Amino acid sequence: MSTAPPSSPHPPAPEGPGSVSRAPHLPARFPDTFTSRYVDTGDLRLHAVTGGAGPALLLLAGWPQTWYAWRLLMPALARDFTVVAVDPRGVGLSDKPLDGYDTGTLARDMVALMDALGHRRFAMVGHDIGMWTGYALAADHPDRLARLAVAEAAIPGLSPAPPLFGGREANDRLWHFAFNRLTDLNEQLVRGREHLYFGHQFATKSAKALPDHAVRHYVDTLAADPEALRASFAFYRALDTTMAQNQRRRERRLSLPVLAIGGAENLGAAVGATMELAADDVETLVLPECGHYPAEEVPEAMLAALTRFLAPYRTASRR
């Protein structure tokens, strides 16, 4: 249940292209509902975009995106929920420390964020690396989450590891995992070629091409700051720690309701199969004509799925 956040001095308002005031091509009247804010969680300052009314709903996107990935869903969700779309550590306008990119730490960051905003209990939607963090949060902090929706990821240390010499389709989808885990060399190869590397990721993983302005926004955010590029790889460099954590997490199954969403042209039903390894109450949904980015490729279908799945949470909060 949401409560009013404690009174405290407000840090300066976020500025720059990653803020609500400067992000490109937002839905009509978006700034009337949503504002950017910095939230201090102790030793970390996170950028969150908040707005709406009702029970709290945390939205966490994946690599290499920011809160902006949720922009098409947020106005409708804000009619029923207090929406919190966040840039996790290392992303967008949030702080970019050198470490802390394992999912245990990322989950603690989200708990601290919601505490600072006054939300003890909340629902969550996580995509890609946001799905990794959502699983860690549900397992490590089971009293905090009411419902969890996840999309388009396998979970390292939980999902079966693919073979090194697998089929071409798997290689084309997953080769960046090994590349991103390298130390320094990947940054040297990508720096100055961000539009080539990240543009290829968006182009090859979507069934419906993302708008040019959205891809440009994501890539320009990474290219503008060497620390942003370094941090984008840090999530993958922390995978040894994350996988060891997930091996332990799988020993205690999740009991909360989970919606697992896959794009028919990418992971499909494999998202649900992954979550069934960890949770007892899993609903699998495969979205037609969709690749890796359902919130942007098929926003109407994604919104309908989330609205239906979150309805019991919304209803319970009104009692």
TrEMBL record:
Name of the molecule in the record: Alpha/beta fold hydrolase
Domain AB hydrolase-1 per the UniProt entry, residue ranges: 55-296
Compositionally biased spans, kind Pro residues: 1-15
Location of region: Disordered: 1-26
Matching Gene3D superfamilies: alpha/beta hydrolase (3.40.50.1820)
GO molecular function, one term: hydrolase activity
InterPro entries associated with the record: AB_hydrolase_1 (IPR000073), AB_hydrolase_fold (IPR029058), Epox_hydrolase-like (IPR000639)
